[in-house]
């Protein structure tokens, strides 16, 4: 309180109101993060008697270490697959945009509209609002990274505002895949065979031996609480099908007269 009365209250006539409702701030509506870093830096220095050269050296070392940690956290966020975002309309956003952006979109879609949408989140966070998400879902269009501000894909605040200058992730992935295919062709038949073995289960799953069993048409319902019964495994399905096929292929025995 003494610090507040001595430092802040004397200059309160110079304060100005700042409205952030229509400003692109990505959720940064206070200076708590800056104040926290300032406090941590003062505790880390632990003294105010450093020389200018040693002080700047320690300060820049601390900043560089923090930048490396932030980049690592952001890269980890991009590489994580959000399990709750598998279904529509978030399928095309996995591993493309930040995890926080998907969470904000899910919260925005669950928001109940009492009187008008407001459409504030496109201005403040660069994300589609609830009415836009509902409009795309009604038209059968899933959310794509082009519907979001470039910041959520690049994690760079100074992203270009012109979306035409923003690189298309799909085009980049196609170019990378084309270059990989060309490299495999150059390596010869062995590399082609190995790549085919890796891609075949994803492109032609019907030719693989491991397939999901068919669902029961007439299930028996929920078993008792202490029941030890379980659904048949894949090899049990295969064994039953093989036995049924062998019985059909057996020729009927003829009795000797």
Automatic annotation (TrEMBL):
Signal peptide: none annotated. Residues 204-257 are annotated as: Disordered. Residues 242-257 have a biased composition (Polar residues). Residues 211-220 have a biased composition (Basic and acidic residues). It comes from the Eukaryota. This is Protein FAR1-RELATED SEQUENCE.
């Amino acid at each position: 309180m003494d610090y507040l009365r001595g430092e802040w209250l004397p200059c309160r006539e110079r304060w100005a109101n700042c409205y952030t409702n229509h400003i692109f701030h990505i959720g940064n509506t206070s200076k708590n993060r800056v104040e926290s870093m300032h406090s941590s830096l003062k505790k880390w220095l632990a003294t105010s008697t450093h020389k200018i050269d040693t002080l700047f050296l320690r300060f820049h070392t601390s900043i560089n270490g923090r930048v490396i940690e932030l980049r690592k956290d952001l890269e980890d966020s991009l590489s994580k697959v959000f399990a709750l975002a598998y279904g529509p309309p978030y399928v095309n956003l996995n591993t493309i945009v930040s995890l926080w952006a998907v969470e904000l979109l899910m919260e925005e879609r669950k928001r109940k509209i009492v009187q008008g949408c407001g459409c504030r989140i496109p201005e403040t966070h660069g994300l589609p609002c609830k009415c836009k998400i509902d409009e795309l879902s009604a038209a059968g269009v899933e959310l794509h990274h082009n519907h979001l501000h470039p910041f959520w894909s690049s994690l760079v605040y100074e992203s270009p505002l012109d979306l035409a200058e923003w690189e298309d992730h799909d085009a980049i992935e196609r170019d990378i895949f084309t270059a990989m295919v060309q490299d495999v062709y150059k390596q010869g038949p062995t590399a082609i065979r190995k790549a085919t073995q890796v891609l075949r289960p994803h492109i032609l799953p019907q030719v693989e031996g491991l397939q999901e069993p068919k669902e029961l048409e007439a299930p028996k319902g929920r078993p008792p609480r202490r029941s030890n019964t379980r659904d048949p495994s894949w090899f049990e399905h295969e064994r039953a099908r093989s036995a049924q096929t062998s019985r059909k292929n057996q020729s009927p025995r003829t009795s000797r007269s």
